[in-house]
Amino acid sequence: xxxxxxxxxxxxxxxxxxxxxxxxxxxxxxxxxxxxxxxxxxxxxxxxxxxxxxxxxxxxxxxxxxxxxxxxxxxxxxxxxxxxxxxxxxxxxxxxxxxxxxxxxxxxxxxxxxx
Amino acid sequence: xxxxxxxxxxxxxxxxxxxxxxxxxxxxxxxxxxxxxxxxxxxxxxxxxxxxxxxxxxxxxxxxxxxxxxxxxxxxxxxxxxxxxxxxxxxxxxxxxxxxxxxxxxxxxxxxx
Lengths: 115, 113
Description:
The complex is a heterodimer. Chain A is mainly β. Helices cover 0% and strands 50% of the residues of chain A. Chain A is built from no helices and 11 strands. Chain B contains no helices and 9 strands. In chain B, strands 1-9-8-3-4 form a 5-stranded mixed beta sheet, with no helix packed on it. The model of chain B has no long low-confidence stretch (mean pLDDT 91). The chains are: A mainly beta, B mainly beta. The interface between A and B is medium-sized, with 29 and 25 residues.
């Protein structure tokens, strides 16, 4: 049973460029959340998708956008990259039944470096 | 969402129990307590979660006080592989039946031989 998978594992971009990160959720999960983790900090919530729509959003600018596909996989897009966007980007998946506190399961992330 | 307070670092001898405390004094009635850990360069690993009752699984035990304002994660026999940053999180279920996790800085646990 594959867990959450993310690609690529590492990426180097320059300021002003655009990037797309990809995530496949754990089997049986239909909700995907994205987090940004700067060095030495805890993860910060970016947004959450289910049923192919953005359902919740954290305090991130519109440069951060996403998409969810019918097979529940998801993409995170970041435009006009800034040096401060350098971070580990984490994808987490969970089943829809949040009422019973079902935990989110994380991938190992994409390490994005901006030069 | 409720905030949590954890000590920044702790040490534990290999083979002994590691007891990691967490304060969540502003927790509300429908917020769960989750524990995750993160080993360097990996994604967070889910450990355990609970609402009111104490919980135990193959990895750890979670003790929640009766007033739910604090909890303790117990690793019964710590090994060197348990060295990691441990995060205590509470999350709110919103009207849309969604949760988001609000993370602090966690506790860096060092298990020593």
